[in-house]
Amino acid sequence: MVFRYYSDAISRASRRVAYGIFVVGLLLIGFGVLIISLPELFALLAAAVFFIGGMGCAITAAKIYLAQRKIDKMHSRHSGGYRENVQIHIKEDFDL
Question: Are 20 and 28 in contact (CB under 8 A)?
Fold first, then answer.
């Protein structure tokens, strides 16, 4: 009689993990071979990704700058609209 420390579910899960690791390993080998055989293409792809990322950052920074400038203009226009020596009174009813 064979005594097992694990169930069939654990066996299936470990087989699926092994299969996933095997597929990822084969994909990494394939990408490595592609990079070795076509370095110019992948250099252009990497440059394109960095260029697009840089443009996205620049556009986002410009939007933030313009929005902040617009907010500053609104605050400067309404800066004289406050009152001095005004206090807000809050009625405090504490039921104990």
Answer: no
Q: Report pLDDT digits (tens) over 60-72.
A: 999 999 999 888 8
pTM metric for this prediction: 0.49
The token pair at 67 is 């929005």
**24 & 14 share domain:** yes
Distance CA 63, CA 75 (A): 18
Distance between CA 53 and CA 47 in Å, rounded? 10
Residue 64 covered by a domain = yes
Q: Is residue 94 part of a domain?
A: no
Residue 20 domain boundaries: 7-37
Rounded Cα distance between 73 and 77, Å, is 6
What residues contact residue 86 under an 8 Å CB cut-off, 6+ apart?
none
Q: What is the CA radius of gyration of the chain?
A: 32
